[in-house]
From TrEMBL:
The keyword Repeat does not apply. This is Hemicentin-1-like von Willebrand factor A domain-containing protein. Gene3D superfamilies: von Willebrand factor, type A domain (3.40.50.410). SUPFAM superfamilies: vWA-like (SSF53300). Its main location: secreted.
Length: 250
């Protein structure tokens, strides 16, 4: 089976179960990490790497960020090499809390990156743990409207500006797609891949529609209300966000 293509601008988090039973696996990761990171940086030179490890809540440090995102492979390798296997005690460990922390601010992801978690572990997780459930960990990734883009052109005289958006969606799982729904009708368009550029226009009396755009705009979407974005990953997990659209009017 072919290795998947490395996505653009990856923020890669190496998340390691560092309890005692993982000692051989940790050694294997440490021995091969230099080759792995070199391969990734060759394919995507703007890749960043972070390293974190987790144990169990009974241990003195159940979750640790060993190195936040860095472009330095040497820094990431040194962080991984600092991890030692210890603790644990029972079979389930603390990965649910660790995954929640990774998706909720412990890692300083770039706003326009592709976020990847490379996770090494050998046991199930306590659910809940530290007040967080597996659903909390799943929903920690978010979807949002990216910064407005300007494809050029002139706004017609007497009309307000319509909204230009780049659809942004990131998740710990691959294959995220985004649909655009109308908050004032049952219309829904897509799904669209992340980084799709859309022009949103609101016209209360018009029929919602989506037509191909020109130039930097991939799609022109006309809605009665605002745009409700829904991102769905390969496992069926979803997250939503709303894009406000100024109405078209003279």
């Amino acid at each position: 089976m072919a290795t998947p293509t490395i996505p653009p601008k990856p923020d890669v988090v190496l998340l390691v179960d560092s309890t005692y039973s993982m000692n051989p696996a940790i050694g294997n990761v440490q021995a091969n990490l230099s080759t792995i990171l070199t391969t990734v940086q060759t394919a995507q030179p703007d890749a960043l790497f972070a390293v974190a490890d987790y144990k169990d809540m009974g241990d003195s440090q159940p979750f640790t960020v060993d190195s936040n995102l860095t472009a330095s492979a040497a820094t990431a390798i040194a962080a991984a090499n600092s991890i030692t296997a210890s603790g644990g005690g029972d079979i389930p460990e603390d990965q649910i809390n660790a995954l929640y922390q990774v998706g909720s601010g412990a890692i300083g992801f770039r706003p326009d990156s592709t976020r990847l978690v490379v996770w090494f572990g050998d046991a199930m997780g306590h659910d809940p743990r530290n007040g967080k459930t597996i659903n909390d960990a799943i929903t920690a990734p978010t979807v949002s409207c990216g910064p407005g883009v300007n494809p050029g052109g002139v706004t017609p005289p007497g009309y307000q500006n319509a909204g230009f958006y780049r659809l942004v969606a990131a998740d710990n799982l691959p294959g995220v797609m985004v649909t655009v729904s109308d908050t004032k009708s049952s219309a829904s368009f897509g799904p669209y891949a992340p980084d799709t550029t859309i022009k949103l226009t609101q016209a209360l009396g018009a029929a919602p529609s989506a037509v191909p755009g020109e130039g930097a705009v991939n799609w022109k979407i006309l809605l009665k209300g605002d745009a409700l974005l829904t991102a769905t990953d390969a496992a069926g997990n979803t997250a939503t966000a709303t894009c406000k659209v100024p109405p078209k009017g003279k």
